[in-house]
What does this fold into?
Amino acid sequence: MEKFYAYLDRMKFIKRWQLMRSTREENIMEHSHQVAVLTHALCLIEEEVFGGTVDTSAAILYALYHEVSEVVTGDMPTPIKYFNGQLHGEYEKVERLAVDKIAATLPEPLHGAMYPYLQADKSTKEYAFVKAADKLSAYLKCLEELRSGNTEFVQAEKTTKEALQAKHMRAVDYFFEHFIPAFSLTLDELETL
It folds into this structure.
């Protein structure tokens, strides 16, 4: 009996933003989908608008599986995860072990092809696009919560935007200029433009 995809299916039960009051819960399955879509967008912008090169397929697959470890570990809140370097280093080890545990449930013929995307090389240009998309996803969550009147996300919106700007990625800047304004529109407003 192969368990890998049953593990992945459990991503829908792992909640994000546990330390903050949210108007709408978010799970890591929907988050991973959004990060994959945003990664695709950033890679396309990099290639088609700026003429850069990036392995878009690899980046999307990194994004799709970037939270797999949390099926075992749960979602470690950012303030705890990054409290200090030693704790962060230890948590990264735990994440790697969790991914290895889940990857071990793949049948051997699939393991070799899947493992590089489950245990991503975080030093690659492609993974930098995933990290930017992950932060962009957090920013969009902040905007959503603020639109709902939830002031709990005021500071998170500010620091997340600053972190995105500090990346100095032209694809991120382009996304902000061309796409972020539409996220404040209602459905009716989206349909009338």
Remarks:
- The CA atoms of residues 44 and 187 lie 25 Å apart.
- The chain has one domain: 4-192.
